[in-house]
Amino acid sequence: MASRSHLIPHIVAFLTVAVWGSTFVFTKLLLQAGLSPAQIFTLRFIIAYVLLLAYSMSRQHRWLCSSWKDELLMVALGITGGSLYFLTENAAMLYTTATNTSLIVCSCPLFAMLLFAIVYRQSEHITKLQALGSIIACLGMAVVVLNGHFVLHLSPLGDLLAFGACLCWAFYSLLMKKALEEYSTLFITRKVFFYGIITIIPYYILRPEEASIFNSSILQSFNSSILLNLLFLAVVASLLCFLTWNWVISKLGAVVATNWVYFNPITTILFAWWLLHEQITVWFLLGTILILVGMYLSDKKKK
After folding, report:
1. Number of other residues whose CB lies within 10 A of the CB of residue 222
2. Exposure on the CB side of residue 125, measured as CA atoms within 13 A
3. pTM above 0.85, yes or no
């Protein structure tokens, strides 16, 4: 029974990452429809927040944290897991290749492990076996992303933005451990959406032309395809996946949970193979094996 209860969070983590791996198609369609990365993020978070708020108000809920320090913690989660993460990741795609962005952003489990080793070196010692497993999984992820083409086109600005997104998600995982000690997954997720929306406002002050998306006449021009894509990103990829991901962190711990990010490029390629009929290569299979081995080792606890 214990092994089964331990397996369920891993299954949920895989399904969550699988959904996130498929979002590139829906995001690309929205970009082609004329929406900017910031507009897509804002709309999906607003929809997700309204739905989650409506659900919370139908039950017993709280509005504020127990202290102002905890409230600032929620602000930090909204920035690292919301506004700043999505802005840096999407902006990186404008200045560097998709390969560079994927390779850098998906290496965040390594940085999350280092952060935990520094901050929680006394209470949560990371074993050599776990560190080795994370490195092997990272190597497997690189093999999948590069797909036999070991040539990277350096772009300092774009690569720096991608690295910023990588650090954002690593810090999000670190901060989430602290938040889960005091608050429920539902409460934290609602706060992440709220502060993600609030902290994106300065961007629109600097880029007022992008705020025009909230003009009623423009919103009315959205066709059914755009609305369906937005709903998928908002309800499934944001609302449900943030809830499940935060729950997975509470069950597996941030280090083990974050290692599932290595599976993101795998699910993306499988999705492209399924819908776009792209070819599966031997490099993909080799990288997948390395990721599975690394995940297995990183989940081993010191007896």
Report:
1. 17
2. 7
3. no
